[in-house]
Design a protein that fits this description.
Layout (H helix, E strand, L loop, with lengths): L2 H21 L4 H23 L5 H24 L12 E6 L9 E6 L5 H22 L16
Antiparallel strand pairs: 1-2
Helix pairs in contact: 1-2, 1-3, 2-3
Length: 155
C-alpha cells in the first residue's frame, strides 16, 4: 500500500466517523475527542510535509487531506453544539497551513463550513483571498498565486 493510499484511508476513517456521529445523538465529549483526533492527524501530516524526502505528489496529497481534516474538525465541534440563534454564523474559515516546501511558498486553505452551492462559496471566499494576496504584496516585491480546488458539497 502506498503512502498516499494509507493517508487517504486515515482521512476516510475520520469521514466515516463523522457520518456515523451525524446520524445519531452525540454528546460534546464525543465531538471534542473526534475534533482532537483531526487536529492530531493534521500535526502528524505536517511532520510528513517537513520531511525533505517527501515527494511533491505526496505533499500535494497531504495538503488536500489537511484541508479536509480542518473541515471535519470544525464539523465535529458543530455537531456537539445545540442549534440556536447565532445571528452571524460563519460560512467559511481561512486557515494557514504548514509550509510544504522549504522556500518562500505560503500555503493556506479556505474551509467551507455551510455552503452547498460552489458559486456561493466562491463569492464568500473572494474577499478573503483578495485580502490575503493584498497582505502578501505588502510584504514581498512579487507574488504568484496558485489555486487548487478540492471539494465535496453535501446537502
Amino acid at each position: 500500500m502506498s503512502l498516499i493510499t494509507a493517508l487517504q484511508n486515515l482521512v476516510n476513517t475520520i469521514a466515516v466517523s463523522f457520518d456515523v456521529l451525524k446520524q445519531g445523538s452525540v454528546n460534546i465529549n464525543q465531538c471534542q475527542r473526534c475534533n482532537h483526533t483531526c487536529l492530531d492527524t493534521i500535526k502528524y501530516f505536517n511532520t510528513i510535509l517537513q520531511d525533505p524526502q517527501t515527494t511533491v505528489q505526496v505533499r500535494r496529497s497531504i495538503q488536500a487531506h489537511i484541508a479536509n481534516l480542518n473541515w471535519y474538525a470544525v464539523q465535529f465541534l458543530r455537531l456537539g453544539v445545540v442549534v440556536g440563534g447565532d445571528p452571524n454564523p460563519r460560512r467559511i474559515k481561512c486557515q494557514d497551513l504548514e509550509n510544504a516546501f522549504t522556500n518562500n511558498i505560503k500555503t493556506g486553505c479556505i474551509i467551507n463550513l455551510t455552503h452547498t452551492d460552489p458559486s456561493a462559496f466562491f463569492e464568500d471566499s473572494r474577499g478573503i483571498v483578495i485580502e490575503k494576496v493584498d497582505t502578501m504584496l505588502r510584504e514581498v516585491a512579487g507574488l504568484k498565486v496558485s489555486v487548487e480546488w478540492f471539494c465535496k458539497f453535501k446537502n
